[in-house]
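Much of our argument rests on the idea that a fold can be written as discrete symbols. This step matters because it turns folding into a mapping between discrete strings. The record that follows shows the chain in one-letter code together with its fold in token form.
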Amino acid sequence: MITLGIIGVIASLTIPNVVQKYRASVLRTQFKKSYSTLSQALSLTAEELGGSLHEMFKAEPPGYDGVVLFRETFNNYLLPTAELKESSQLFAFAPYNKNLESDYTSMGLGAYPGYIILGDGTAVSVFKNNGRLSVLVDINGLKHPNRAGYDVFLFVVDTKQDILTSWSQDAQNYCSKTSTNLYNGRACTYYAMIDRSPDNSSKRYWEALDF
């Protein structure tokens, strides 16, 4: 009985850690796959439109205007399995800071005019925000945790070349477990890409997620 008790205690201590590592590993794999898929679509879009996207749309109006051509071309290369859904409800996700009183955030964004669903369940919304071509992605769709910086990420087209990058690298304000900034979560894309925790540089990004 003593031996069984010891085994039970050890199991109760190790199983949650194993489960957390597994969940983090799954999200990490999904993130890398999504980044690869979106990057390929961006390259093909740039090739079809015959110019540098970061320059072509630079002079367009700010906000959500002036991006219809980019959106339609980009979406065609994602090979969606569903029509464009004219709703932003999918992107009503939880904030990166789990201690906030509010259980909802949009990182100051929104899935306007809607999103498409890929064959693997990934949800993608393409828009233009403050002059930047932007791609908001939920790497596992309606599945949990539906949280900024966990399975919801913002990519933007770099201002100097046609590659997808992070909106910011400012962890203190935009990817911190303690930040109350409205845009907190936007910079988590950068730290997910380099796999480094924004709150503790000695830890990997995915392993440091607090489930």
Residues 1 and 7 are 10 Å apart (CA to CA). The chain has one domain: 2-208.
